[in-house]
Amino acid sequence: MPELISRGQAFNQTRQVHLATDLAFAQTHWTRLRGLLGVSEGDFRNGCGLWIRPCRGVHTLAMRFPIDVVYLDRAGRVVHIEHNLQPWRFSPVRMQAASVLELPSHTLARTETALGDHIEIQMKMKETK
């Protein structure tokens, strides 16, 4: 099973609520291609997320659980939302998107995230020993 390494947080500035406090990044060809494949629903719980950049659309082929999907433009504005995207589906391609957040199902409803909201991706500071 691939391990998602938390590198940051996703914060909805408009609603003043965290979407993900355990945010992994997928920014290389291979990590974007792999996405959440091999991750179990139990490992992708509330507070988790995957930020895929660059990205204009996703799929849930070979996944075993639904996810919420947030499309962000370059400024971090929400330009499209997919609630509860079921396994073995393709989400639409949105040309205005620069990145996509994959979140546990029902995160968007719980946080009331909507089109036009501003999402800030916050990098975690490296720990010093």
Question: Could you describe the 3D structure shown?
Answer:
With 129 residues, the chain is mainly beta. The chain is 9% helix and 36% strand. The protein has one domain (6-123): Jelly Rolls, CATH 2.60.120. A seven-stranded mixed beta sheet has the order 5-4-6-3-2-1-7.
- Quaternary status: single chain
Query: What's the structural domain tally?
Result: 1
Strand order of the largest sheet: 5-4-6-3-2-1-7
Order of helices and strands: EEHEEEEHE
- CATH-defined architecture: Sandwich
Summary, kept brief:
By secondary structure, this protein is mostly beta strands. The chain has helices spanning about 30-35, 105-110; strands spanning about 5-10, 15-25, 50, 65-70, 80-85, 100-105, 120-125.
Descriptors for this entry?
seven-stranded mixed β-sheet; mainly beta
Write the layout of secondary structure elements.
Elements: E1 6-12, E2 17-26, H1 29-34, E3 48-52, E4 67-72, E5 78-85, E6 99-104, H2 107-111, E7 119-123
Parallel strand pairs: 2-3
Antiparallel strand pairs: 1-2, 1-7, 3-6, 4-5, 4-6
